[in-house]
Specification:
Elements lengths: L4 H14 L3 E2 L16 E2 L2 H4 L3 H6 L4 E5 L6 H9 L4 E6 L13 E4 L2 H9 L9 H22 L5 H11 L5 E4 L3 H9 L8 E4 L9 H12 L3 E6 H6 L14 E7 L15 H9 L6 H7 L4 E3 L5 H10 L4 E6 L2 H25 L1
Parallel strand pairs: 1-2, 3-4, 4-5, 6-7, 6-8, 8-9, 9-11, 10-11
Helix pairs in contact: 1-5, 6-14, 7-8, 7-13
Length: about 350
């Protein structure tokens, strides 16, 4: 992930110059750009869950640009891949290697460092067959996702539809918790320039509404904000700023009445404490919150969210779009996609 969007362009230049395999976080600035297709991989969160895939794709060298990636699956892969060198390039003076994986740290401007490294004629990215295998696994995963999502409606499909609806040159602000993870796993790679921003950290769902409105005010252009119901409720008062004449945000709220992310953690097996302390269902209707602040509201089916976002962007003022989801059903559907990806990738590896 990167706060500097120019860094994403530098990463893509480096990948083009050297032929390295590029795993692009959705917040990196390298995944939703005209030059990203064919360079950046965007389905690693799904295919790196399999031990055989990890073994086949083990690297000798890892170059991480910026802070730790969003995907816990990717972090776990990097931690256990056995690379001889794990270099981190980052301008910040803050410690961003909580798993202590880095063997080398370069503190400085990543764009300049990558451009200089890319100019070195002696840089050898590795065997072409190994890089081709990454591309083949990405392709198999992408097809498996499309097949698995066809006719199915769950939160991963919503994330995919939302990012596809953001126009070239537009801005998508994505909330912490499941929205950014669903974007990472299912958002794919686009060949249009889109600025994707997000708040990360332990309190990443706080202030999402206000931050999205601040981004819109600063950029003086519409913003699509993709968030969950808990993040909306944490900062509901931020909707007051939608009255400002020069601010326009289309809020896409996935409402599963609680914290859906906790269904993917071991605590889910302990029902005595799970629902009340972790899932925390609230029963609050986002339509009533929107009415309180006089924000136009629309209940949208998951399959229609893309068109609803496009219509809202073409209209005037901010709008709140709600997509209702069931936490249990969403967990089952997501796991079914993971199983489909595992089967598709296994077939592809057998052919290699």
């Amino acid at each position: 992930p990167a706060a500097d969007q120019a860094q994403g362009a530098a990463v893509l230049r480096f990948a083009a110059a050297t032929g390295v395999t590029l795993l692009a976080d959705p917040l990196s600035g390298a995944r939703y750009r005209a030059a990203a297709v064919g360079r950046a991989l965007g389905t690693y969160d799904l295919f790196l869950r399999d031990g055989l895939v990890r073994a086949a794709l083990a690297p000798d060298l890892v170059i991480r640009v910026g802070r730790s990636p969003t995907s816990a699956v990717l972090l776990d892969y990097l931690d256990g891949c056995g690379a001889d060198m794990h270099a981190v390039i980052d301008p910040s003076h803050r410690w961003k290697d909580h798993l202590a994986m880095a063997t080398h740290v370069l503190r400085g401007a990543a764009a300049e460092a990558l451009d200089r490294l890319g100019e070195r004629t002696g840089f050898v990215p590795g065997e072409a067959g190994w890089s081709d295998l990454w591309s083949a696994v990405e392709d198999a995963t992408t097809h498996a996702i499309v097949d698995a999502l066809t006719g199915k409606e769950f939160e991963g499909q919503v994330a995919r539809n939302v990012v596809e609806a953001v126009p070239s040159g537009g801005t998508l602000f994505v909330s912490n918790s499941m929205p950014v993870r669903d974007l990472d796993a299912f958002g794919g790679v686009r060949d249009q320039d889109i600025r994707v921003l997000g708040n990360r950290g332990a309190s990443g769902i706080d202030g999402i509404v206000s931050t999205a409105l601040g981004v819109a005010a600063g950029a003086r252009q519409p913003v699509v904000a993709f968030l969950g119901d808990i993040a909306l409720l944490h900062d509901g008062n931020g909707l007051l700023a939608t009255r400002e004449a020069d601010v326009k945000v289309v809020f896409v709220v996935v409402n599963n009445d609680g914290g859906g992310i906790f269904h993917f953690l071991p605590i889910r097996e302990h029902e005595l404490h799970f629902t009340g302390l972790f899932a925390t269902p609230h029963g609050i209707d986002p339509a009533r919150l929107a009415a309180l602040y006089e924000v136009p509201y629309q209940l949208v089916e998951p399959g229609g969210v893309g068109e609803a976002v496009r219509v809202a962007l073409a209209g005037s003022g901010s709008r709140l779009l709600e997509i209702r989801s069931d936490r249990e059903d969403n967990q089952r559907r997501r796991e079914a996609v993971v199983d489909a990806v595992r089967a598709a990738v296994a077939v592809r590896l057998d052919r290699s």
